[in-house]
Design brief:
Elements lengths: L1 E5 L6 H10 L3 E6 L6 H4 L3 E4 L5 H8 L4 E6 L4 H7 L4 E9 L35 H16 L4 E5 L1 E3 L9 H8 L4 E5 L8 E3 H13 L1 H4 L2 E4 L8 H11 L5 E5 L8 H4 L12 H7 L7 H14 L7 H6 L5 H18 L17 H6 L5
Parallel strand pairs: 1-2, 1-4, 2-3, 4-5, 5-6, 6-10, 7-9, 8-11
Length: 365
């Protein structure tokens, strides 16, 4: 059996390729050749061409045919068209920006995406709502029109080794630099669906194993358990043996944490994956806390260069002097605010109280 994977050198690629080889496929990997993975390079055929150049892809593939094609990179619409009639099965990957409100949560009233967002939730309706999101939504439709029995996965932010935008580095570097605290907005309570690279690849391979169930379907992907940003920090600190105080600030002030949120507001972005679980039997190959620990240790051992491309893309300046000044001013302000005292301190309600309590408790002034 012959399989083509377009991309393959990103976070999910090695897992997918290794899974295909274990299933008896002879794998050809179409990629630019700027990154090679030693652990799999010798086991696959390399087709070095730019996946973003449709003419070059068409020429490179010539009249070749495949039993299976998995497209995770490049111009998806064009590659899907090129492979019509030349592949037995077609599996592709896109992203969550196809959903309305993913980039701009103020498109919903009340503000914020519905939680959770189901597979059939509202998509970006037009370019005015969000040009990129609309293109992603149209691409999904065009891909399944070209390959009616194909399968499409909406990828979340994928974390793990070799991620070109490693959110975890914002935390890991502060640990390596022995920072005693980290600023998080609103207590770090924001929830957002993420996916460990091995888990996302596992979902793709389940579609390979279940061609009938997955035919013509689109699936949300991601880890089963959605961790808050504060829990992510806790998992990474535990993995690297470091204690770091979380300093909670309002969103407008917590600017050092904005690169970790990756959106204009700290609202939740949680996507339902029950369809994938029910139809494909998905379960996390590695639980999220363990996957975060593995990722943190990898970046601690393979740190990006300070001030290099990774940190430029993340837009995290790591200006610790400025962070310390911000924390000091904020805590000074908090101390003054705490001087304001209620005559009758607000409580946490008296639900299911003993009726006698009402008689004993003095009325709120």
């Amino acid at each position: 059996m012959r399989a083509l994977i377009v991309g393959g050198t990103g976070p999910t690629g090695p897992f997918i390729i290794r899974g295909l080889i274990e299933r008896g496929y002879r794998v050809a990997m179409l990629h630019r050749g700027t990154h090679e993975l030693d652990e799999i390079s010798a086991e696959v055929e390399h087709i070095h061409v730019d996946p973003w150049d449709p003419a070059a892809v068409r020429d490179a593939l010539a009249q070749r045919t495949f039993d299976l094609s998995i497209v995770t990179y490049g111009r998806l619409r064009a590659t899907a068209a090129i492979l019509v009639g030349r592949t037995g099965r077609f599996i592709s990957a896109g992203g969550f920006p196809a959903y309305r409100g993913f980039v701009d949560p103020e498109q919903f009233t009340p503000v914020g995406m519905p939680v959770p967002m189901y597979d059939d939730g509202p998509k970006v309706a037009n370019e005015e709502e969000h040009p990129r999101g609309y293109r992603i939504r149209v691409t999904e439709e065009m891909v399944l029109a070209a390959h009616p029995q194909g399968t499409h996965f909406r990828y979340p932010y994928v974390y793990g080794p070799r991620q070109p935008l490693p959110r975890e580095w914002c935390i890991v570097r502060r640990i390596l630099d022995k920072r005693p605290h980290i600023i998080l907005p609103e207590g770090g309570l924001t929830l957002c669906t993420f996916g460990y690279s091995g888990n996302v690849a596992h979902a793709v391979l389940l579609a390979v194993d279940n061609p009938t169930a997955s035919a013509g379907q689109i699936y949300n992907t991601g880890d089963e358990h959605v961790l808050s940003l504060a829990q992510v920090v806790e998992c990474i600190c535990t993995a690297l043996g470091h204690q770091m105080e979380i300093v909670s600030m309002p969103w407008e002030l917590a600017r050092p944490a904005w690169p970790m949120i990756m959106q204009p507001l700290p609202t939740h972005r949680v996507f339902d994956i029950c369809k994938m679980k029910h139809e494909l039997g998905y379960r996390d190959a590695l639980p999220a806390p363990e996957a975060l620990a593995l990722t943190a240790r990898w970046y601690a051992e393979n740190p990006p260069p300070p001030g290099g491309e990774v940190e430029w893309v993340l837009q995290d300046p790591f200006e610790y002097d400025t962070e310390d000044r911000l924390i000091a001013l904020y805590q000074e302000g908090l101390a003054r605010v705490r001087e304001v005292q209620f005559k009758q301190p607000p409580g946490l309600t008296m639900s299911y109280y003993d009726p006698k309590v009402r008689k004993e408790r003095p009325p709120i002034a």
